[in-house]
Design a protein that fits this description.
Blueprint lengths: L3 E2 L2 E2 L8 H14 L5 H19 L2 H18 L10 H22 L18 H19 L3 H11 L4 H8 L3 H21 L11
Antiparallel strand pairs: 1-2
């Protein structure tokens, strides 16, 4: 990727780290909504996965993700990189959208939602896919038993947000994120082992 100055590419290729590349993509998208696509492609899967873990329905997760990115496009002109990154800002939008949908669901209960997410995996055996689906359902079931804050922290961690970003999304301190994660993992470890999931690895900073 080439750095831009005055709308023209410089003659030499300058390597960009991930943060600098993201900032450049944001600046371009702020100048023109048509340039938002690289940001969308960068975070689409992570946002859909996060919504699915929270909502439990793949179709609703995709619908929520569409709304989230529409809100992001509309609000991008006012985005300022003050408290972490575009990723933090985007997942704050995602968190609020999911919370709104869960509140709506509580007020308007529907039929049970589907628990299985369709995944491509033609190279894997049906037995492996079934085992993964079963483990996924069990983990989601265990997550549903956690207090809301503990569940939110683990789900954002599963979406690959770091401690600083999770703290910004939830509006809490980084110490609170770490202690909440420890409590959540302590609650889940024994249950996961009993459920047949051999280990639970959550990588954080």
């Amino acid at each position: 990727m080439r750095l831009m100055r005055g709308g023209l590419a410089q003659s030499s290729e300058v390597p960009l780290d991930e943060v600098s590349e993201e900032r450049l993509l944001v600046l371009r998208a702020q100048e023109s909504p048509h340039a938002f696509e690289p940001l969308y492609l960068r975070y689409r899967d992570a946002v859909i996965n996060y919504c699915f873990y929270r909502l439990g329905n793949h179709g609703e997760a995709e619908d929520a993700a569409s709304v989230i990115f529409i809100k992001a496009i509309r609000g991008l002109a006012d985005f300022r990189d003050r408290d972490g990154s575009f990723r933090t800002w985007l997942f704050r939008i995602a968190h609020n959208e999911v919370v709104d949908r869960l509140r709506h669901r509580a007020r308007h209960p529907e039929l049970p939602i589907d628990l299985f997410r369709e995944r491509s995996g033609s190279e894997r055996s049906p037995e492996d896919l079934a085992a993964d689906a079963d483990a996924h359902v069990r983990i989601r079931t265990l997550l549903s038993t956690l207090p809301p804050r503990e569940r939110a922290v683990l789900e954002l961690r599963a979406a690959d947000l770091d401690t600083h970003q999770i703290a910004a999304v939830l509006g809490v301190t980084e110490h609170n994120v770490r202690s909440t994660q420890c409590r959540a993992l302590a609650r889940m470890r024994t249950s996961l082992t009993q459920a047949g999931v051999l280990s639970l690895e959550v990588v954080g900073d």
